[in-house]
């Protein structure tokens, strides 16, 4: 059981892992030992996630989520299989924690009179500068 928050827990049966050879430098060991891990989590079909968290997680996952709604995290930062496995699980948990945080709704406000005046003054100054830089007819 992977504990995410006090109300969200992911069962081990919902996670699928595959170990692959790690890319990059590493000497002779890198060519014979499969230390990198690919962790798959079916976001769209998970019974552990509330609907609002599921929608935000699909958006947050970006390119890591395929068309079927499966999130794939690849971890190859460390040289051992166990540390890469723990890293992938922690990254999944952190992503779900971010999705569980409900964003504060934006309250529409109007600009103040002073900020409108500052903006218009800045526009007038810019227009004046450009007008002064312009070539006059007959100047060459």
UniProtKB/TrEMBL annotation:
Domain Prokaryotic-type class I peptide chain release factors: 21-37
Highest taxon, organism lineage: Bacteria
Region spans: Disordered: 96-140
Molecular function GO terms recorded: peptidyl-tRNA hydrolase activity; ribosome binding; translation release factor activity
UniProt xrefs under Gene3D superfamilies: 3.30.160.20
Sequence ranges of Basic residues compositional bias: 125-140
BP GO terms, sorted: rescue of stalled ribosome
Pfam families: RF-1
InterPro entries referenced in this protein's UniProt entry, alphabetically: Pep_chain_release_fac_I
Sequence ranges of Basic and acidic residues compositional bias: 115-124
Name of this chain's protein: Ribosome-associated protein
